Amino acid sequence: MTIPSDALDRVRAALRQVCSPWETSAALAGSCAWLGVVGWALMLAQDDGAHLFPCGISGLPSVWEPPLRPLARSGSWPICLAALGHVWTGHGLERPYPLPEADAPAAAAALPLRKSIGALVALRPGPTPFTHAEQTFLSAVADEVAAVLADLPGPGQPDVLPQLREVERGAFTLDLTGQDITCDRVFATIHGLPGPGRHPLSAALAALPQADLPQAERLLQQLQQEPGTYEVIYRVVGFDGLHVMQARCSRSTEVLDRVVLTGHVTDITRDADHAAWREERMHRQIRSAEQMRALASACASAGSTNELAAATCDVLAVFGADAIVLAEAADQHLHLLTSHGQQPHHLEMLRAVELSASAPLTDALREHRAVFIASHDELVSAYPHYGDVSPRLDRQAWAALPIPLSAPDARPAACLLSFTRPHAFAPEDHALLIAAAGLLGRALDRCRAWDTEHARAVELQKGLLPTALPHLTGIELAASYLPAAAGAHAGGDWYDAYTTSSGRLLLGIGDIEGHDTQAASLMGRLRTAIRAYAALTEDPAELLHHTNRLLTEDNDNDPERARTATCCLILLDPATGDLRCASAGHPSPLLHSPGSGSRELITSVGLPLGIFAEGTYRSTPHRLPENTQLLLHTDGLTDRPGTDPAEAHDLLDEALEQAASLPAEAALRHVTSHCLAGARPVDDCGALLVRRHDNSRADGHGSPSRSGAADRPRGAASTASQRRRPAIDRAGETSGIRPGPNRPR
What we know:
The protein is an alpha+beta fold. Helix content is 32%, strand content 26%.
């Protein structure tokens, strides 16, 4: 690795801003990012001279951090020898200080600080040792750190030492009655007056910025009306910029008939700039600390890599970063884990990049070093092959950061932060972003494990659902299963449809309590059990009764893994449309016909499965008229946080009306997309759509001719708010208005 020619200058610039030993390690992490994922630990001698204590840690994964306790200086650890003046370098499993949990190789250097004040440790996880040139550079860094520490206040030392500094003071006499001022050479020079002597007051005021003149005139009026001793801070425009002046004056007692003030003025620009710099620096440090706390909290609560990327982007947006990519090295290829805020075409460009290619993200992954690109010009300068594509890039600056991972066998990971504007990365920005990458590393292992578990549960759940639906004359079937969004666990929603031995159609839909692989596997068991029990009885109520006893017995035998489930079963005769419906705590199916809108099937609803072994269920007879559609669904379609239940159900009714003329599969896609548009589903969603058509108009595959809205009576209501939901009685005719379970009255 080539050492940049200005590497030591960067270190000196960063250390000049250090105000305490604890800040030195952060300054080094920011200014030495080109070395790779190098962490720093500053160990200083305590007052007793016999122990060392970590007084600055930055850039190190938690397993590599020194123990936060005094370490005997007489010990045999390399850090102890370095504190006595011996330079030590090592690699592999050699450790500079006790590290009981770190079992991966690393390159390390323990460097003495002058006057035996302690030692500085640089540690880079990985098998590559520090080169001779890097060791020479690290020794020079230790000398710079020692020089800075020597100038810092000691534990009992005041923050500012007494010192003498010669300053020039200008004298003046201000006659407010005559509106003139008499001054010496210093005052005249400061205010741009021709020379010492008497001048109009307006000539002195001309040196002030135009924006400050109204306030200056109010102060002069106050001086004239309220005699006393005053101190005034004001600004003047000099040939080299703005200067801050401090004037002290009091009313002269020698002049009785006029208001005359005498005093002197001093240029305090340097002191004011220093105070403003310290205040700005303090605010910047406070802001950085707050953002790090917010990022730590967000990383701790993120459940998936998608959530982790979004949370990181939200927290770092205050620094201008509005997009992020998380990637890993997999079999010499660049594998994108997730992204947030990136344009699709930029992601396609990244997917096409080989790990061996030269790019900010691949360099961070391959060489374990941070790459900061401040502008398009800097990008093309560092990576000339980007010259043709840089005009197509929406972002203006980038930071590619290796993510330190605690697991020694974990795939190397890195993140790419993008900025909407050119960004001059200061040393404190380097330290902040490297610290952010450290927080990401602590959360990424957990989130990747969650992603794997979530994908496994979703695949298991999809694999247990029917691979095909029955084809019956006059009957259209369509099914849909939408897993929960990333960030929520897979659930146990399921559906089923198959032809029984008697030629009838058995329809089922249900939802298992919980969101994990156990819920998904239990869903498969219940679905299989219902099919098995259907060989004994086709009555939906009897099927629920047997399935309930099975699940309740399982729960009693293993209470810690007890689960409940809701279920709705319908037995349909395709020829006549006669059906029987039974429900175990499940949302009621919806029946929709053109012109009449949607209405719930009135069904006796029993307890959810798995609660009470002797629970009773009853089958309710209905009839499915021709040219109507029946929708069975789970609560994921309507029950969403922050959505009013009545509005959600009206939205569902509206979607069914709009999709009445579409083929069944297209209709169901429209219903789910319409109901979930703009929502972030936190639960699975299962749906089963059944249509019964006039057999005389059905084709050989059971698909009807499309009459659609032509079957709707003229003047029929077109929106959910205009429709009424009549209940269906046992003969299949409407019998007044009756709201279904959990429906608004």
